[in-house]
Amino acid sequence: MGILRLSHVEIRVPDLELATAYYAEVVGLIETDREPERVFLKCWDEHQHHSVILRYAPTYGLEAVGFKLQDREDLDALSVRLEGAGVAVERLAAGSLGPGSGETLRFRSPSGHTIELVHGMQQVGNLLPLTNPPPEPLGLVGIHPPRIDHVFLMCEDVDGATEFFRDLLGFRVTEQILADDGHRLAGFLERSHTAHDVAFMTGPDGAFHHVGFWLDDWTSLRQAADICSFHGVRIDAGPTRHGATRGWGLYFFDPAGNRNEVYTGGYWVDPDREPITWTEAEMGHAIFYYEGAVDQRFLTVHS
Ligand SMILES: [Fe+2]
Predict the structure, then answer these.
(1) What count of Cα atoms within 13 Å lies in the side-chain half-sphere of residue 6?
(2) 214-237 confidence digits (pLDDT tens)
(3) Would you say residue 139 has pLDDT above 60?
(4) Is residue 285 annotated as part of the catalytic site, yes or no?
């Protein structure tokens, strides 16, 4: 019971049509619904109604991040736990956050992000039959990741955010980058037994570093870089190897300046595994293992 995995991100974009064209044709997501100021999309292998919501706004950034709850009872249990810790929790009925939305607990985390814990989002299927399915539907375009993977957020107090997600929401810390004085510069947390479902890095409260989409292998990651270059999408970093999470990643920007990643590799982790620690001196290798250094530009939210 509890949180299963990352469910969705709601991303601000100043040009809804341009952003929709990018996420549909370059990233290769599938549009499932639309309102005057919001567009709902999903990755092709996801069964739920949406994993990305584009919201018209004057600038870029993250409106909300959602996690999927396994059981309806989790809504009550987590609501009690959060309110017991002094967190103001809003409980929203299914459908009230837009088409396909499930019953939701919404609150503001100490990191300054709006968090939505959702149960019962509408299921729309993954474009494949449940009997004798082929491995992938025909006609997909762009990068077409099969699913959303993780979200990387920024905040001033990474220790506080990491401990909030660990102690109140039941996440487990997989990795951390510790400053020489002992405080966390970054924290990686999981619920899905992967290397991370969410991570925090030092930066402004409420800031959005990137959303990561899963790809099945390194070849797909190189093809994603080809597709970005073909479409004139500016590549920020990679394809390269991460030290932390042991994955491979490619970073690029949507037309609004929101950073995207496609990610593969990593590892599986049991709940009783001790966290891996990276020292401040090795932070460069933790983030980009081959380069061994991080451009200051990568540590900001800006394109
Ligand atoms: Fe990432």
Answers:
(1) 28
(2) 999 999 999 999 999 999 999 999
(3) yes
(4) no
The verdict on residue 107 lying in a domain is yes
**How far does the centroid of ligand 1 lie from the alpha carbon of residue 260, in Å?**
8
Q: How far is the CA of 70 from the centre of ligand 1 (A)?
A: 24
- What's the confidence (pLDDT) of residue 55? 98
Cα of 265 from ligand 1 centre, angstroms? 11
Q: Are 33 and 40 in contact (CB under 8 A)?
A: yes
Q: For residue 197, give its domain range.
A: 147-298
Domain count, the chain: 2
In a domain, 233, yes or no: yes
133 located within any domain: no
Task: Name the percent of the chain in helix, strand, coil, to the closest 5.
Answer: 20, 40, 40
> What's the pLDDT tens digit per position in 147-201?
999 999 999 999 999 999 999 999 999 999 999 999 999 999 999 999 999 999 9
- Shared-domain flag, residues 9 and 115: yes
Which CATH number do you get for residue 168?
A: 3.10.180.10
Distance CA 132, CA 294 (A): 46
